[in-house]
Amino acid sequence: MTNVQQPVSLEDTPFYKKQLRLALRNCGIINPEKIDEYIAMDGYMALGKVLTEMTPQTVVDTILASGLRGRGGGGFPTGRKWQFALNNVSDKKYVCCNADEGDPGAFMDRSVLEGDPHAVIEAMAIAGYAIGADEGYIYVRAEYPTAIKRLEIAIGQAREYGLLGKNIFGTDFNFDITLRFGAGAFVCGEETSLLTSIEGNRGEPRPRPPFPAVKGLFGKPTIINNVETYANVCQIILKGAEWFSSIGTEKSKGTKVFALGGKIKNTGLVEVPMGTTLREIIEEIGGGIPNGKKFKAAQTGGPSGGCIPAEFIDTPIDYDNLIAIGSMMGSGGLIVMDEDNCMVDIAKFFLDFTVDESCGKCTPCRIGTRRLYEILEKITSGNGTLEDLDRMENLCNYIKANSLCGLGQTAPNPVLSTYKRFRDEYIAHVVDKKCPAAVCKSLLCYEITADKCKGCTACSRVCPVGAISGTVKNPHSIDKTKCIKCGACMERCKFGAIVKK
Amino acid sequence: MKKPISKIPFNGTPEQEAKLKAAIERSNGNKSELIYIMQQAQDIYGYLPYEVQVMIAEGMDVPLEKVYGVATFYSQFALSPKGKNAISVCLGTACYVKGSKAVMDKFSSELGIEPGQCTADGEFSLESCRCVGACGLAPVCVVNDDVYGKVTPEKVVEIIAKYKSK
Q1: Which chain B residues are Cβ-neighbours of A491 within 8 angstroms?
Q2: pTM
Q3: Cα A106–A107–A110 angle (5° rounding)?
Q4: Domain B85-163 is found in CATH 3.40.50.720
Q5: For chain A, which domains are there?
Q6: Residues of A with CB under 8 A from a CB of B
């Protein structure tokens, strides 16, 4: 019994030590199906304070002063959005919550909705008071059944306690929330598409201006904020704008939740103050890259974002720095890639996604992304030329400049950022017809190292096309004209004699 | 992506219709609940055939083309039912060169349906997939969660027979 380790508190583990949980503060702490537990954590205190002590303008001023910016990706100052909607005189206004988290690999909104649904409901009511709305909609994807169930329970309990409905806190403020379920369209995360979808239509975007704060849901002034944005609001009201703006960097206040994934030891949701460096997230919180591989790049912002190469690993992460280095915050997906990932292939992967999800309303996105995908396909299959690279770059800039909504305007980002930072890989595909990371199938070949091969015939038996020949106990060889590069032989070989180049 | 449209005759029950009518009733004529109604309809019927789309269009007082437009826009909505047994034939490279196209054609002719469709009795649906990562076993097909390797057109008949009784 000499190796007894002292138990370490969860907060002191490397994974949690550098984190600061504000948006996620109640997740995993309270029972999300019991409103009393939320109230015990100062829940609905902020709504009470707003309704009894503050005017709508002071609420907006507080949010403005806090420096809170939209967590859904754009980073627009939340207070300014609210101010626009407050300034617009109308008999009816709406508050919407964007919970259509479509970014592959990101699940922070889901975590908040499942772990702390009342935080979103309370913040929406506060927003309703601030802009003068009495109705709210939460647009949540149907793929999140647990989130939907917990929201339904939470809304029901809030109504029962009189925290939603008529004359909340004995004032003349009325507010209620309706749930709407997404039906599996990525574009509905774009705010105008989300509104058209709530109205019961095909979720196609519409041109801005008019912005939703002027003419939004059912033609009325509307604010739309992301789940994580709302999750910060109540604490700003309770603890003050100064407290919030003391966290983070000059232009990005507070914290950001990242969904850390990919080639990294510790995966999961990570909430850190703005300005934390990529190195801290990857090496300290994430525990580094497994299998002794080298860090190559981090992808942020999902299909709208870009890749951050290793040379920028010490950049403090905030909205403006990420844009400066050619990526974006996005909703917070953070995928780590090592030397085994081909950047051209990654760009192609994201383009494949946008081609599928383009709604088809505007031509630059509908046709442009497909043409762009075809160029990438040509490059990864070894038929690309240097002219193709120029055409690719031109097309990217054209799509960016001319698409109707955020989906199309950001769709070329994965290509542009990888082309800028990893140009040598594109050149290698086009000029040398090689994939340096050995990912692109058409450009690699499988070979048998003769002095390692024992002639066991296992590979030739597993080869689906009979491309491997050789006799027992003699080195085998692969006929490259027959080989379809399925990799079955390499998996089967016990001696590591088969390599791909 | 174009969605395959079912050619199977519609066989909805009065109970299903009553459920759908009740759901439409609950929406109180609020046309913005169209997507929600269609989600409930898909829960009731498993997919959204023409007849169901007509019922929704009439019940909600919206044009049928709008219902169809919404149904084809969102990936959640299916216009063709999935069979009790879902067959998926790998058309990835390794399987393809080992003759999975012939396997697919055999499934297609045996069941009398095209890829993306479902048989009239609702027993089988057929679709193609990209690589399932079992190239050593090529050609491969997957029925429900069972993987079959080295499938030949002759074996197709056996495989179908195995599930027919279930």
Answers
A1: 136
A2: 0.88
A3: 150
A4: no
A5: 24-245 (3.40.50.11540), 255-338 (3.10.20.600), 359-432 (1.20.1440.230), 445-500 (3.30.70.20)
A6: 142, 180-185, 197-204, 218, 356, 359, 462, 464-465, 484-488, 491-492
